[in-house]
Amino acid sequence: METTETKLGWSFWGRWVIWTSVAWVVGMLAAIFLSYLVVNLFYPKETNLIVGICMGAAVGLAQMQAARPWVVLGWGWVWGAVVAMGLPFVLFVIFEEMGIDTGIGSGMWLMGALVTVGGVTGAFLQAQSLRATTTRWAWWIPGAMIAWGVAWPVDGLIGFPAGALAAGAVGGALMIWVLGSRR
User: Would you tell me which of 19, 30, 69, 93 could form a disulfide with 54, CB atoms 3.0–4.6 Å apart?
Assistant: First the structure.
């Protein structure tokens, strides 16, 4: 199969960063709204799951739209983002229920590790959307893990939504490279 080199530039990167960052905030606001109205009535710790689902869905849909002029990403992209953002929150609550220290300090490291696990799992699902489009599709998996892994400490050190900007910047640069070799 023949491959062609594609040049994506600053317009793609800027769109990716902006759409990812705005969606991160919108997803968080949607999670707060849904948690307050619905989830907290039944079991307050499920708020974490709602945060992951809302933020993941918002980010996945936004990235799908941001990339649309250059590439069509399938629904696996959105599901991958939901898993990448939802899985760490679910596992965190499970660890809390098991009595594992999730407080400040060790809990921050634990959440960072869980974000990385979620990033790998979600990136694997997202990479399937790239498989038919680019020969570099598999590079999305370690690269997205890095992007998600960078977002957590940046958010923790600088504050919300700095992690969204970091994830968008790293992910956007990676996507430019991944899409540079089209099938």
Answer: 30
